[in-house]
Amino acid sequence: MNTKLTSNHKVFGTICGILAAVFYGTNPLGALKLYEQGMNTNSVLFSRFSMAWIIISIILIIRKENLKVTKKEFGTLTALGLLFTASSMTLYFSFHYIAAGVASTLLFTYPIMTAVIMGLFFKEKAGFKTVIAIILSLVGVLLLYWTGEGGEALNTLGVILVLVSALTYAIYIIVVNRCPLEMSSFKINFYVVLYCAIGMAVFAWLTGQPLRLPHNAVSWFYSVWLAVVPATLSLVLMVYASKYVGATPTAILGALEPLTAVLIGIFVFNEAFGVRLALGIILILSAVIITAYHSKD
Length: 297
Prior knowledge:
By secondary structure, the protein is mainly α. The protein has helices spanning about 1-25, 25-35, 40-65, 70-95, 100-105, 110-120, 130-145, 155-180, 185-205, 215-245, 245-255, 255-265, 275-295. It has one domain. Helix 1 runs antiparallel to helix 10. The model has no long low-confidence stretch (mean pLDDT about 85).
């Protein structure tokens, strides 16, 4: 009975990891649309996190969950909030310096960072299937990146911002996996997105950039989209994935993030679909399938 329950949990965690990656991969769609509407990065992130906090608060009220936390839990939640704020800020700012699709592919260095950190500090050995999945997904991401014909050099600041985003996101996943938080995913993210909203308000005040709320139907739509899909749904699902299948498999399943960005480019912005792109997609899906199969062993 316990074996069956564990197997079901791993399958559920794998599904959550896949959905979390796809949902998180829609970040560029909402962000770029809001930039077009004249909203700055601080305003986009503040509206995203504040709306997500309201949504999660309503869910917690319906579920009648107690919001009390211990001092130890408060410290862990604070760390998670700061990490996710840093990851989101650096990713969204990078969109101003490099293409969103390129940023999404570079962000996928975080599975490697996750595996390295887990190996160095937690002595977690990567199995053969995990190594193969990482290699396949990285080659796939490189193929996605080199589908362009220009070959121009990437903006250095943009690359640094994405790498910082990847590192802080990798640490975030590890903390979720290793910390002893005995509470629902909704409760965890109630505090995480609250920290993020407060963090963006403070950052806007320190930098002298006024926060601007959505001002028309289009900006409201994409603000709500960012709050619901890549913020609320992705964060909640990622917590379940990390707890049930582990930090490294969750990170590898994140290969679907750049894949999602590419598909958005094809179907929303009519970008070209070539052989390299097709091969990259196949390799990334293969890595996800290997990870999903391995998580059930």
